[in-house]
Design a protein that fits this description.
Rossmann fold, 2 domains, about 350 residues, about 15% strand, 4-stranded parallel beta sheet, alpha/beta, globular, 8 strands
């Protein structure tokens, strides 16, 4: 019997600093999130970050928390429910981090007799800290607890025409009645070393401004290339003026170089130095709105833009549980059911 496991990032159980600390501990101790030797990662996370960051993060979560709970969890559950209505295969939902564990998700399917699982990481672009960590954990869980289960994962879908169209339509629909003079594509940031580590050719990725535009097998696992390509795909789909569009990266951590340009600095620069008065931002690294979109961009980003002299700031919602996105997932699942 076949089944499906949708996997998103995860969320604390509540906005209580203790719950946030527990969640951050699991997230940041992942060797594919902070890819440093265990002893140093443990010292950094448990000795420093978890003693300073949980209260600040908890305050941020409180700003965006819904009555039903974490926006990311609520939106993911809505997506799961809508997709389930369009397929006969059982569809389970799990999070890479937090109490909605992937083990529980696989167990739910296994208890229904599922032995052939389609794993769908809900990330358009591949990255060590997103898609890869989900796929790796799924295989570890399969070997330890579900040895007679087969798991097939859907690769990064940033380039799939149906996804590009759905993303483009969501942007067009939201901005149809809004004025803006620049559209910024803000992707979640990763350390530059992650790009080099993901390079299967071990020689292509130099992050020099040209490698992302030079065809290579490395692009299959290059987050930076896939982000810039996502922007290009939408520009083409919507017929946008390239001069009115740019790409940046948010949420950096630590002192090591992360992908640039940085979103916060770009927002200020657009207002202060480039004269942009009406800015629109889309966040295509996420399919579900979450802390990084609702607080970091929609709240902090707007504040930074207005303080720098901007006048209007629009945050385009993620594709969330839109009917077009639901139909795309259902079609992928139904294709899997026929194989």
């Amino acid at each position: 019997m076949k089944g499906v496991l949708l996997v998103n990032l995860g969320s604390p159980d509540s906005t209580d600093p203790k719950d946030v600390k527990k969640y951050l501990g699991e997230f940041l101790m992942d060797e594919r999130v902070i890819d440093l030797p265990y002893w140093f990662r443990s010292f950094l996370v448990k000795g420093i970050i978890l003693n300073t960051r949980p209260k600040k993060s908890a305050a941020a979560y409180k700003k965006i928390w819904w009555k039903e709970g974490s926006p990311l969890i609520v939106l993911s559950e809505r997506l799961q429910n809508k997709v389930q209505q369009k397929t006969d295969l059982p569809v389970a939902l799990a999070m890479r981090y937090g109490s909605m564990s992937m083990k529980d998700g696989l167990q739910e399917l296994y208890d229904k007799g599922v032995k052939d699982v389609l794993l769908i990481p809900l990330y358009p672009q591949f990255a060590m800290a997103t898609t890869e960590t989900i796929v790796v954990l799924a295989e570890e869980l399969r070997k330890e607890f579900f040895s007679d289960m087969k798991i097939t994962d859907i690769p990064a879908f940033y380039n799939k025409p149906e996804y590009v169209k759905a993303l483009s339509n969501s942007i067009k629909d939201y901005l149809s009645d809004k004025e803006y003079d620049h559209l910024l594509f803000s992707y979640h940031g990763v350390p530059e070393r992650h790009i080099r580590k993901s390079d299967i050719t071990k020689s292509h990725c130099k992050i020099d401004g040209s490698c992302c535009n030079t065809p290579s097998k490395a692009h299959e696992f290059c987050y930076r290339h896939q982000c810039f390509q996502t922007t290009k795909n939408v520009i083409k789909e919507l017929g946008l003026d390239e001069n009115m569009v740019s790409t940046s990266f948010q949420s950096r951590l630590g002192v090591d170089p992360w992908l640039q340009p940085y979103t916060d600095r770009t927002i200020v620069k657009k207002a202060e130095k480039e004269g942009v008065k009406k800015l629109a931002i889309v966040t295509p690294a996420f399919v579900s709105d979450c802390l990084e979109t609702l607080e970091e961009i929609a709240m902090e980003g707007e504040e930074e833009f207005l303080e720098a002299g901007g006048e209007k700031f629009h945050t385009v919602p993620c594709i969330n549980d839109s009917e077009e996105w639901v139909s795309i997932l259902a079609n992928w699942i139904n294709d899997f059911s026929k194989k």
